[in-house]
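F.,

This is the one I mentioned.
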């Protein structure tokens, strides 16, 4: 199957949006839900960075760097939601 990288990126985006929305729903019971999610996103990003520091062939490294770029953006979005104390998914 061709274009597995694009499928992976699409799946990653869908999962991220779903998890973000889930954490908005959790805010009614847990005021720290988005902060916890932010910490999870940072941990996941750090794991990707650690992985890419190892020996990888160029095509895999390029794909990983693309994913790191997207995950960095995701982290920044969640951080902004936390800092601005956004509590409604509609604002997302």
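My design for it:
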């Amino acid at each position: 199957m061709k274009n597995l990288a694009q499928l992976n990126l699409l799946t990653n985006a869908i999962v991220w949006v779903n998890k973000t929305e889930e954490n908005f729903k959790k805010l009614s019971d847990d005021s720290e839900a988005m902060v916890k999610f932010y910490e999870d996103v940072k941990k996941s990003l750090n794991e990707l960075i650690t992985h890419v520091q190892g020996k990888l062939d160029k095509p895999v490294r390029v794909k990983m760097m693309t994913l790191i770029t997207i995950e960095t953006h995701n982290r920044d979005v969640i951080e902004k939601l936390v800092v601005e104390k956004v509590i409604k998914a509609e604002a997302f």
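The chain has one domain: 4-91.

Talk soon.
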